């Protein structure tokens, strides 16, 4: 964040607990629901689970055995439920929508896309947790708090969030809202139907910022909370995690098949306490500490309604309200504990979204498939020290619209899909800091972003789908304003894309893609001026150029049904990528022989770096009637072309192995293994305050177990309809995991073992 000299003392206090490895390399400044009360299982499980390792193991095995025995007693339902049970086995969804805004088979899409399913989301307490196994995604450079979770796609994310796009229901999010004190999607996994992660450079669909990729979170509707075969109902869920987290929700929905309207209301309450790490990470008050002070109360409310004007037209309106009350530290990702001098930080995180949609799809007109969306969004983080008269609030407001139309037509034997669209978004960013009653001056705020984009994308299918060619382009016009300086800069950019898939044999495709992405400079990069933190005296740079990324992807996919059995299937896909980011904006030291009046050095944002990025992603899934097994492997190398050094740091190669076994009708058991290989560090070490620190130089492995049990699949019982019990162990062996970004002496050693149990039902 950026503050004036009056607030400089404040940052000096906050920065004292910043780890040494960050101080040495930091290039950016740090910037309605009813209470559920205590859950009835909380006290019992807290007493029984906080025990030595053998009790963890005994309890885990016991629950698995009990689940197996109970499920076996349901064997008489096998004939009636076998086919529906198969539907519960997690499997890679068939299509991607985010990649081109046109439903496309994942296996034939010429790019790197991963989908997080509804089942995977339900097993996580935050959306970022659910992305931990996705190839090309890096997490873990944090202390495990819900308010602050590190996240990177293809080399960019936290502290470089303007180079990725995070969306919920088509509305963009800012993870940290400029301050870098937090990193949160401000979303609810139980409200998400699926999440698509598009990796790599592509601005054609959503405009500037998608240099690292896009995360698109799709919301559930009323139909998703109605019991099978019914037109109305309620849904409820309770979840308990022994690593100090519990939550519950209640939803009511009305979605009759023979009526033109639908409606749902949803409310959730969650609480997260002190988080236990995988081992002792440091000391608090002179005592060895394994737990990290955490106090977070989350509330979520969601209202959604829809009305079919005609069988071909529908309007819908939704309201999403997310809030988190916290007693925490100033920098949530890297600060372990607050000081006695300042006391904890008392804060409130908010996110409110209004989204209105209109769809029109005439049955007899293949030229019209229209979707129009209007939105208004507001996010904020307001906090103050308990013992010091310092208050700081960040605010991010957005509104705009998106209109797109998909047409189907033919020219001879060639089939085409044509997508045309226009987007507009206005964003207002502001901050307010009071230091002992004195208002701080933010040189780059308030500011305004105006972004307009027009795009077209055509897909042509030749030889009955044997060759599919995708051509597209987007023209963006962007304007940046800074109110204080009466500054306004208008520029434009055109982003092309070409993709092709060629079928060379039954189920075997060769894939290729080339795309360009851009990112406009932010007002903070152009207008930072003065001693905005203890480290740097910032100098403005009004001549910054947009960053551009060009990336090529090539690979293949293979799908085979009936490989070893009549009802099995094998899917695998390999994509290699190579690209370059030009005019990368970074904070650089300038005037090395001059000493500023305050701070340590002069610094300025410059277009200095040219970055090379290359790597691969490989996924595979084998499915049978008994379940499935799969793998994912990813590698990314992102280096400065001039020096060969990693930018912004090293990324470890990641291997994911997973599988699910339909042990009995209604019972599904799962295993998930993440292995991070020894990273290739360059540089291997750094010096801070006369001491040398080495970056992480070892491999890590984390194993998870999970189980899902439906006592009476798709049938009513005393606890409702579709009742489901979930159970799992995150990090079974209590193993450490350290992100490749950190030094070996870092306190961020990964969260410890976490046993969870959940109960959900519909009635």
Q: How would you describe this structure to a colleague?
A:
One of its GO terms (cellular component) is cell outer membrane. It is a multi-pass membrane protein. Belongs to the TonB-dependent receptor family. The radius of gyration is 26 Å and the shape is globular. 44% of the residues are buried. With 763 residues, it is mainly beta. A hairpin with a 2-residue loop joins strand 23 and strand 24 (438-439). The model is unreliable at 1-93 (pLDDT under 50). The chain has a 22-stranded antiparallel beta barrel. A 5-stranded mixed β-sheet has the order 3-9-10-7-8. It has a 3-stranded antiparallel β-sheet with strand order 4-5-6, with no helix packed on it. The protein has one domain: TonB-dependent receptor, beta-barrel domain (Maltoporin, Chain A), CATH 2.40.170.
The shape is globular
**CATH topology (fold) name:** Maltoporin, Chain A
Helix content: under 10%
Structural class: mainly beta
Question: What is the strand tally?
Answer: 41
> What does the main sheet amount to?
22 strands, antiparallel, barrel
Gyration radius over CA? 26 Å
How many domains would you count in the coordinates?
Answer: 1
* CATH architectural designation: Beta Barrel
Q: What is the CATH class?
A: Mainly Beta
Distance between the termini: 48 Å
Number of helices: 8
Extract low-pLDDT stretches.
1-93
Strand content: over 45%
Mean pLDDT: 88
* Fourth-tier CATH superfamily name: TonB-dependent receptor, beta-barrel domain
């Amino acid at each position: 964040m950026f503050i004036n000299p009056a607030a400089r003392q404040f940052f000096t206090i906050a920065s004292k607990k910043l780890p040494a490895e960050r101080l040495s390399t930091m290039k950016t400044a740090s910037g309605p629901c009813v209470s559920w009360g205590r859950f009835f299982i909380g006290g019992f499980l807290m007493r029984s689970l906080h025990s030595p390792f053998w009790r963890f193991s005994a309890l885990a095995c016991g629950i698995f055995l009990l689940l197996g025995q109970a499920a076996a007693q349901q064997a008489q339902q096998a004939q009636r439920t076998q086919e529906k049970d198969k539907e519960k086995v997690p499997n890679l969804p068939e299509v991607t929508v985010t990649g081109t805004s046109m439903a496309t088979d994942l296996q034939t899409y010429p790019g790197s896309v991963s989908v997080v399913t509804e089942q995977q989301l339900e097993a996580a307490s935050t959306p970022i947790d659910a992305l931990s196994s996705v190839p090309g995604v890096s997490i873990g450079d944090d202390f495990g708090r819900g308010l602050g979770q590190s996240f990177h796609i293809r080399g960019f994310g936290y502290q470089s969030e303007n180079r990725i796009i995070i969306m919920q229901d088509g509305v963009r999010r800012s993870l940290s809202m400029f301050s870098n004190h937090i990193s949160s999607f401000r979303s609810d996994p139980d409200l998400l139907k699926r999440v698509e992660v598009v990796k790599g450079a592509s601005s054609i669909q959503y405009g500037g910022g998608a240099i690292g990729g896009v995360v698109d979170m799709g919301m559930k509707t009323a139909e998703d909370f109605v019991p099978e075969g019914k037109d109305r109902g309620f849904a409820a869920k309770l979840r308990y995690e022994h690593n100090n987290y519990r939550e519950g929700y209640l939803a009511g929905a009305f979605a009759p098949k023979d009526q033109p309207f639908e409606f749902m209301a949803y409310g959730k309450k969650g609480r997260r306490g002190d988080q236990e790490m995988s081992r002792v990470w440091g000391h608090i008050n002179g005592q060895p500490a394994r737990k990290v002070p955490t106090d977070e109360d989350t509330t979520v409310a969601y209202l959604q309604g829809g009305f079919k004007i005609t069988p071909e037209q529908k309007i819908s309106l939704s309201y999403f309200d997310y809030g988190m009350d916290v007693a925490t530290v100033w920098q949530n990702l890297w600060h372990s504990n607050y000081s006695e001098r300042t006391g904890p930080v008392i804060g409130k995180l908010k996110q409110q979204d209004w989204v209105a949609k209109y769809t029109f799809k005439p049955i007899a007109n293949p030229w019209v498939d229209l979707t129009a969306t209007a939105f208004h969004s507001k996010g904020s983080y307001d906090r103050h020290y308990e013992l010091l008269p310092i208050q700081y609030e960040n605010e991010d407001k957005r509104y705009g619209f998106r209109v797109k139309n998909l047409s189907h037509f033919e020219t001879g034997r060639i089939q085409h899909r044509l997508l045309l669209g226009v987007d507009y978004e206005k964003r207002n960013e502001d901050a307010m800091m009071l230091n002992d009653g004195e208002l701080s001056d933010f040189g780059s705020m308030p500011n305004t972003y105006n972004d307009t984009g027009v795009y077209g994308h055509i897909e042509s299918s030749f030889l009955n789908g044997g060759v599919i060619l995708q051509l597209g382009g987007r023209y963006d016009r962007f304007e940046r304003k800074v109110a204080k300086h009466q500054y306004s800069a208008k520029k434009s950019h055109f982003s092309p894309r070409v993709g092709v898939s060629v079928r060379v044999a039954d189920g075997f495709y060769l894939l290729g893609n080339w795309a360009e992405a851009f990112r406009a400079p932010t007002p903070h990069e152009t207008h930072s001026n003065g001693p905005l933190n203890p480290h740097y005296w910032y100098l403005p740079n009004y001549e910054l150029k947009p960053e551009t990324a060009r990336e090529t992807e090539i690979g293949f996919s293979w799908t085979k049904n009936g490989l070893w059995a009549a009802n099995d299937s094998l899917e695998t896909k390999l994509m290699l990528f190579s690209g370059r980011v030009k005019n990368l904006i970074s904070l650089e030291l300038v005037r090395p022989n001059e000493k500023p009046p305050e701070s340590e050095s002069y610094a300025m944002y410059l277009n200095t770096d040219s970055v090379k990025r290359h790597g691969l992603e490989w996924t595979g899934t084998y499915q049978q009637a008994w379940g499935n097994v799969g793998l994912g492997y990813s590698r990314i190398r992102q280096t400065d072309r001039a020096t060969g050094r990693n930018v912004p740091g090293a990324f470890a190669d990641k291997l994911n192995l997973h599988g699910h076994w339909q042990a009995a009708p209604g019972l599904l058991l799962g295993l998930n293994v993440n292995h991070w290989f020894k990273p290739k560090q360059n540089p291997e070490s750094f010096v801070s305050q006369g001491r040398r620190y080495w970056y992480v130089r070892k491999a890590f492995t984390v194993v998870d177990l999970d189980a899902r049990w439906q006592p009476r699949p798709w049938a009513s019982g005393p606890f409702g309809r579709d009742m489901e019990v979930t159970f799992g162990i995150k990090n079974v062996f209590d193993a450490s995991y350290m992100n490749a970004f950190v030094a070996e002496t870092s306190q961020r050693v990964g969260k410890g073992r976490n046993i969870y149990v959940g109960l959900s039902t519909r009635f």
